[in-house]
Amino acid sequence: MSALARVRDAVERRLLVTSLGLPEPVQRRLAGAPVVLDGQQLATDTQLLLRLKKVARIPTAESLPLEEARAATRHEAGMAGGDQPIGEVRDVTAAGMPARLYVPTSSAGGEPLLVFFHGGGFYVGDLDTHDAPCRVLAERACVRVLAVDYRLAPEHQFPAAHDDAEAAYHWACDHARELGADPDRIGVGGDSAGGNLAAATAIHAARTGLPCRLQLLVYPATDSARDEDPDNRSLHLFREGFYLSKAYMDRANEAYVGPGTDLRDPRLSPAYADLPEGLAPAYLCTAGFDPLRDEGEHYARLLEKAGVPVTMRRFEDAIHGFFNVTGAGRSAPAAVAEVVEAVRAGLH
After folding, report:
1. Active-site position among 118, 164, 320, 331
2. What family is it from (predicted)?
3. Can you give the C-alpha Rg of the chain in angstroms?
């Protein structure tokens, strides 16, 4: 990165942090009238963030060529994530895939391990886009986090990401001691597309007898046949204007799902899986202003019906993507803090 680019990024970052740190009444004047939909009010700092993106004419990922979309996603995540402290970050290889191990400052060895899969619609996202939330999870929950860089579409279509997730989890279970973790306290997690992979991996773990104490599902994508569900209220209410758009999801499906693929294949859509006995307890959270909200909550109910202990949390004032906003504003970091405590409780 050039010196000019670094200065530009520093200025952009400072503007973002300052704007989202203003007193709420000031933010309200800048953001405009409250946004209320489906009995929920959008957080003021989030509304301001969306307005700043619109005023700055920042292009959406789905409107950009592939490599530009990936670069833009990394850039946005870097701006919103901030500089999060961590004891150690170590590059490793998990089942042949690049991965990062995050070790908390308080580590004495033998901590629980969370295997984490990043979001990004299966076609964007990587270790860098989710570096900040992985640091926060590891440092504040006092766990080791293994973030896995699974293969992306369209270069690698379904079931590549699914197969990579299963292979990475097997590898983590087999090498937990080498990673400095407790092999009896392992969980799996992810957000959005990563939440999809985490849900499928938890099912696989239960079927094959792999240890799994927790499945962390942050606004997970669980039903690729969502367009065929007339009761999917959130898909229609929040299809545009709240960061994750219907157009983004359509591009994700086009990239990842090859011709002839059954959208109800449980490896692609966990909502159609036969849920096995012994499935790990779940912490599943959704965002109120998210087109994926209703399918995530539907999956939580399916888990409960199957006898799985489930903690379901809707952050009513949030949008899809809040998990990456760890370094600016108030509402999103507060939601992430709740997720951290759920991981601590589930794995310790």
Report:
1. 320
2. Belongs to the 'GDXG' lipolytic enzyme family.
3. 19
106 is catalytic: no
Distances (CA, A) of 166 to 201, 277, 297, 339: 6, 18, 24, 23
| Counted domains in the chain | 1
Is 314 a domain residue? yes
Instruction: Return the number of other C-beta atoms located less than 10 Å from residue 54's C-beta.
Output: 10
Structure tokens at 186: 């392992």
298 is catalytic: no
Domain containing 331: what range?
72-347
CA 15 → CA 62, 88, 201, 214, 322, distances in Å? 25, 29, 39, 38, 18
Interval 223-254: pLDDT, tens: 999 988 888 999 999 999 999 999 999 999 99
Residue 15 lies in a domain: no
Length of the chain, please?
Answer: 348
Q: Global pTM?
A: 0.97
- Residue 78: inside a domain: yes
What type of residue is 207? R
Q: Are 130 and 148 in contact (CB under 8 A)?
A: no
Q: Is 290 a catalytic residue?
A: yes
β-pairing, 144-148 vs 181-191, is unpaired
* Domain assignment present for 18: no
Q: What is the pLDDT of residues 23-67, one digit of tens each?
A: 999 999 999 999 999 999 999 999 999 999 999 888 999 999 999
Domain containing residue 89: CATH number: 3.40.50.1820
User: Which of 290, 294, 317, 331 is an active site residue?
Assistant: 290
The catalytically annotated residue of 192, 245, 269, 331 is 192
Tokens 């990062």 correspond to 100
C-beta separation of 126 from 74 below 8 A: yes
